Amino acid sequence: xxxxxxxxxxxxxVTGATSGNGEALTHTLLDLGATxxxxxxxxxxxxxxxxxxxxxxRCDLGHLEDVDLLLSGLPLEVDFVFHLAGNAVTGxxxxxxxxxxxxxxxxxxxxLIEGLRSRMMx
Length: 122
Hints:
alpha/beta; 51% helix; 16% strand
């Protein structure tokens, strides 16, 4: 498999693009010639990714309104989605902490993937 052939010119959406594996993948996809919609919460890091050639999109997946706004600003056709945003959780959570965790790690990403599914089948 030639990664450049797979990703050159591909339209990719990467969540968690401002840190860790998401940031590393964003840089790799840009190097391979992909068009990358970099999704994250940190505006300064998104600006740095824009300087590298990414199309930054600020979104907190824990807020469904942000997810809906994100979906309205993404292209009608998408080739790949890489969901790398998430919160590491250890120990017990209060009801409020669990609700925040659920929205950001489950509800938001599910809404995003459901919104992108038809764009990937075009």
